[in-house]
Amino acid sequence: MSSNLLSQRVVRMAESETLKMSQMARELKAKGHEVINLSIGEPDFDTPDAIKQVAKDALDAGFTKYTPVPGIPELREAISKKFKEENNLDYKASQIVVSNGAKQTLANIFLSLLDQDDEVIVLAPYWVSYSEIIKLAEGKTVLLKAGIESDFKVSAEDIEKAITPKTKALLFSSPCNPTGSVYLESELKAIAQVISKHPGIIIVADEIYEYINFTGKHISIGSFPEVKDQTVTVNGFSKGYAMTGWRLGYMGGPQWLSDACNKVQGQITSGANSFSQKAATFALQTKLPETELMKTAFLKRRDMVLQLLQEIPGVKVNLPLGAFYIFPDISAYFGKKSDKMEINNATDFCDYILQEAFVAVVSGAAFGADECFRISYAASEAELKEAVARMARVLALLK
Ligand code: PMP
Ligand code: GLU
After folding, report:
1. N or C: which end of the chain has fewer CB within 10 A?
2. What is the CATH number of the domain that holds 300?
3. Residue 24 confidence (pLDDT) above 90
4. Do 173 and 228 belong together in one domain?
5. Which has the higher per-residue pLDDT, 3 or 217?
């Protein structure tokens, strides 16, 4: 048996860079190195105790069987209510599909939407898995990229110019992974106006960092009446409730698309974990203080890390307004050398930082921006300080 039995679909697909860097960090740690892992985008906080308790109670009560494919009715109701109250979005419970993480939600959506070579406009820098999920669904990613000088945000005019008869969807995250950028109300409105002129295009709005938004108000693009029926809103429990391992994401979308996602999911996973869904229902119905406390902690860390990074020569940063990432431009280091290697791109830069400073970060190449790297500040202040100090030390050695 050999690997040439593999499908071209899988051969063409890249491995997740975020998960790969994280695994490399684990392996170096296992060899005894003091690695600081700032590569994975995962809150360092534990899931709130009250949420865990509901899951434990559900287990004890024997809530351990298959659930309806799109999710338990009370969770879909709670999500529908949350969308209405917090986001001004009108999705009935029947339009909600709960999945094993927002990652699966995205996979359901693109498997449902795309035929071969259908185009998806992806605003870049973008989250690593977008392009690979689109590829898996045999679609074509059309990247529209913005640099640090425009806060990594693409304009509505540029989106309009990229639309072709093959365009099926527009995909972006706000707050954005990897840049932390937040599209403001006026920017979203302008995008909504462009897309509303093209009824054959669906907006896939990834709002998983909704609760880590430092602008004071999260705006959902689906709340603009002109794209109400053209928007699928993706969210989940991983970031706002520190529930990454619980694997729960969800979507609200046009009924026909939700029905299709339900059908896909029914054949692939049968739905999300039963007792996680009970805990998630409780999380939505109860205004827990932890979500706000985590946001406050993230904001404090953002300011600290930004200041420390700004002190390193050649590291250019902007002000991220959400999520827990900073995405510095480090192109000033390209062409510099250590005894062992030359830095020619962001991947070399990240390899150098990992090998010499034992700090794991992710190359911007994975996110469509080879002049940048991503640092996740979802770590303790002590770790963050130490990590940036180590980076500064080894970068100063480059000639
Ligand atoms: N979208 C974005 C932008 C993300 O950063 C993540 C985090 N991995 C996801 C979706 C998927 O989240 P999950 O599958 O953990 O719900
Ligand atoms: N969203 C996180 C990240 O970007 C989790 C890892 C992943 O699923 O990619 O690092």
Report:
1. N
2. 3.90.1150.10
3. no
4. yes
5. 217
Ligand 2 touching residue 18 (CB < 6 A): yes
Ligand 2 pocket residue status of 16, Cβ below 6 Å: yes
- pTM here is 0.96
Ligand 2 binding pocket includes 155 (Cβ within 6 Å) = no
Residue nearest to atom 1 of ligand 2 (CA): 41
75-94 as b/e: b if 16+ CB within 10 A: bbbbbbebbeeebebebebe
Q: For position 125, which CATH number holds?
A: 3.40.640.10
Q: Which of 241, 221, 131 is nearest to 174 (CA)?
A: 221
pLDDT band for 20, please (50, 70, 90 cuts).
Answer: confident
Residue 23 in contact with ligand 2 by CB distance below 6 A? no
Which two structure tokens, joined as six digits, stand for 251?
A: 């979507």
Taking the CA of residue 128 as reference, the ligand 2 atom at the shortest distance is 9
Closest-approaching ligand to the CA atom of 241: 1
**Ligand 1 pocket residues where CB is under 6 Å:** 41, 101-103, 127, 173, 177, 206, 208, 236, 238, 244, 249
271 CB within 6 A, ligand 2: no
Nearest CA to ligand 2 atom 3: 41
Choose the residue to mutate in 22, 39, 40, 44 for probing ligand 2, maximizing ligand atoms within 8 Å of C-beta.
40
**Span 200-247, pLDDT tens digits:** 999 999 999 999 999 999 999 999 999 999 999 999 999 999 999 999
Helix ranges, the chain (H)? 8-12, 17-30, 49-60, 73-87, 101-113, 129-136, 156-162, 185-196, 255-268, 274-285, 289-310, 346-352, 381-395
SS3 37: strand
Query: pLDDT over 90 for what percent of the chain?
Result: 94
Query: Domain tally for the chain?
Result: 2
Query: Is there a domain that residue 53 lies in?
Result: no
Q: Which of 1-10, 19-28, 384-393 has the least mean pLDDT? A: 1-10
Give me the pLDDT at residue 1, please.
57
Structure tokens at 219: 């705006």
- Do 34 and 97 lie in one domain? The reply is no
pLDDT of residue 194: 98
